[in-house]
Structure formats: C-alpha cells, structure tokens
Amino acid sequence: MIKDLTKGAPLKLILLFSVPLLIGNIFQQLYNLADIVIVGRTLGVNALASVGAVAPLFFLIMFAVAGMTNGFAVITGQKFGAGDVCGVRRSAAVSTILSTVLTVFFSIICAVLMKPILFLMNVPQEIFRNAYLYIQICVLGLIIANFYNLLASILRALGDSKTPLYFLILASILNVFLALLFILEFHWGVPGSAVAVVLSQTFSVILCFYYIKKRFPILHLQKSDWLFKKENRKEDFAFIKEHLEVGFPMAIQFSVLGIGILIIQSVCNTFGADVIAAFTAALRIEQIATMPMTSFGVAISAFVAQNFGANNISRVRYAVIKTSMINLILSIVMALVMRYWGTAIVGIFIGADKTAVIKIAHDYLWISTIFYFFLGQIFIFRNALQGMGKPLIPLTSSFAELMIRSFAAVYLAVKFSYFGIFYAGPIAWITAAIILSVGYFVNIKKVIYAKRFRLTEKSLEE
C-alpha cells in the first residue's frame, strides 16, 4: 500500500514504518543465521569458518548493490513526495536499467577475480575450496539480489514497508528448508547453503513483481518510460545523472564500509579457524541486535526523502532529532542485552561444546557493546543526509571510517593479537558518527537559510 509520509504525526509514521522494517531485517538476517546454525551444527567448525572467511566479501558485494538501489529509490521517493507520478515511473525505469547493467558488470568482474581476491584475504588452505564455491554461487546470483533490493527499495520509497517484510518472511522460511534439504539430504555441503540463499531470493523477487503488477498501478511502466527520444535526450541524460549522483556515491559508500570489514576479516583469517568462526558468529548475532537501530535509519531515509521533496523541512528536523533520541535509548538497551546474553546465544548457534570459539566471541561482544551509542547515531544521520540527496558527506565519512578501521585492525592486531581487531570497528564508529552528525546539522541549516531567503525574496517581489 502506498503511504504518504508528508502528512500526519511524524513520529507515529516513522514508528509504524520502522516496525515492519525491523521484522523484515531480522528475517533477512535469518539467511545468514541459517548458514551458522545449519553449517556450524551439521558440518563443523571448519565449514562454518569457510563461510565466515568470505562473509565480509559477500557483504561488500551486497552493500554495493543495496547502496546503489537505495540511492536510486531516494529520487523515486522525492518524486512521489513532490506529487510527480510520471517522475515516479521514469525513476523506476531508469533505476532498473542502471542497476541491472551495473550489477551484471560487477558480477562478471568478481567472478573472474575471485581466486586472487581470496588469496589476498588470507583464506586458509584447508577451507579455501568451500569458501570459493560458496562465494562464487552467491556472486552468480547477484542479479537476483539486485532485483529484490531494487523492488523493495522502491516500495519503501512509496511508503510501503510491510509488503517487503511479508515476502522476506516467506523467503527466509524457504531458505531454511532448502538449506536443510541441500545439506542433509542432497549432501551438497557448504555450496548447498549458497544455492538455498539464491533460490529463496528468486522466490521473493517473483512475489515482488506479482504484487506490484496487482496493487501498484503507479509503477505500471509504460513504453515511454523506457525509451529515449531525440527531442528529450538532454532531459533524459539529466535524469540519469540525477540518479547516478545519489546512487553511485551510496554504492561507493556502502562498498567502502564493506572493504573495511573485508580488511578486518583478512587480518582475522591469519589467526585460524577458531577465531574466524567466533568472529563470524559474534558479528551475525550483533547484526540482529543492532537491527532496531538500522530499521529507524531506513525509515528516516524514506521519511526525509518524501518530506524533503515536498519542502517540509520542519518535519525533517523534528523526525531526525526524535529518532536520534530513540536510537540512543535502543543502543543502551541492546548493549545490555548483548553483554549479558550474547555469549549464550552464540553457544546456541554453534554448540555449547565449542568453548574456545565461544570465549573469543564473548571477548568481542564485551568490547563492541560499549560503543553502540555511536553506531546508532550513524544510522540516523547517514540516512537523513541520503534522504536529502546529500551523499557526499556519508561518502566522506565512509572513507574516513575505512582508513581508521584498516589502520586500527592491522596495527592493533600486531600489538594485541586478535583482541586488537575487536577495537577497530568501534574506533571507526566514533569517527563516522562525528563526521555525519556535524555534516547533517551544517546542511540542514543551509537548507533553512536558503528557504528563508527565497521567502523573503518572494515577499519583496510581491
């Protein structure tokens, strides 16, 4: 259902919008948790380590796709907020073309260079084959992930956060059944888990297409939405440029974040299977713990995009401050949950007998939870800036985060062994949170002053 976020109580709208996102994000993480539970429980620590060793590379690829499609959807949301129905359709068409072309190109490059990349990541020889097969299957299915992310982003941009949730739930359940089937019955091992992910994502894409066809006439694209006419060539290229100016920096930004995690994983891989498995399990659990904060970030992006397009700047300011305060509270609550129950949850997923692995995961969670406050603020201010169509500051913060994270991981690992790696992420969070919060307040003040200037100029003319 289409939802106009430019009218009504901002906080209520954001809460109602974010709850389905939260549930959806949790179910999306079940794709990854299914890998941990099924692979870790049935195939052992080395199999889990083979998935964990390439998980950051998988996240890097997915981050790039998600960043690009989310960026394109910002333009769609702004067109919808401005009441431009034709612009919404054209944005959906341009987004589809651009994301498909770029994803196919990226998939080919990754597939060709995969073995050298894994060697650079220091993937241990005993887990190399399974790691290679797993990530190659995921890369070959990247075009499917692109279509789901694109369709889900467009639906959310139009105010519908519930439908992608329903499809994610169904796909996540299917993923679990397929993973069990391929690993336990077909004996495909680690690659079976990757095949299950791709097939379940394909199912969610089919559902999205069918739903849009039946319920979203605003997205029923016409022939004119796809074609470039000579007389409109200048406007068409300007429209493409508008999407690339938001989508490309967001793709780079998400990729930079993924590269930082990739570098940490490369350092982590040098410490053996136990550390890799522990780091993998702890990160997956932490991703679920931080889902509430992430969901408010996605919600604020859609809210800001529509209201910024409608020039409702006061609603933007109010929503950002309120969600920032909510994420502050959530960061404290989730930090306490992870400090006291996170280790037990890790034990459930990988087996209570893996005491060495559980101890390492415990050490990571005990350190990272202290810094959840900064992570929560990153989600709010980064997405607010992106919703305003200001991707350069988030991109700058991502590069700063990459440099800090990489330096800290390498330097601290030499000084304090794998304990040093655990501090690399939190240090990067602090850096990014400062840059993004300052960038948001500076930009929102500029927008307010510009609006006041236009009103003053208009009154003088009258």
Largest sheet: none
What order do the helices and strands follow?
HHHHHHHHHHHHHHHHH
Number of strand elements = 0
Straight-line distance between termini: 41 Å
Low-confidence runs of at least 5 consecutive residues = none
Q: What is the alpha-carbon Rg in Å?
A: 22 Å
Output mean pLDDT.
83
Strand content: under 5%
Helices and strands: which structural class?
mainly alpha
User: What is the helical fraction, as a range of percent?
Assistant: over 70%
Overall form: globular
What is the tally of helical segments?
Answer: 17
Number of domains: 1
What does this structure look like?
The protein has helices at 10-43, 45-81, 85-112, 114-120, 125-140, 142-157, 162-185, 190-215, 223-226, 233-268, 273-289, 291-309, 313-350, 355-368, 372-387, 392-416, 418-461. The chain is mainly α and 462 residues long. It is globular. Helix content is 87%, strand content 0%. The chain has 17 helices and no strands. The longest helix is centred in the C-terminal third of the chain and has 44 residues, at 418-461. It has one domain.
Brief account:
It is built from 17 helices and no strands.
Which terms summarize this structure?
462 residues; mainly alpha; 17 helices; 0% strand; globular
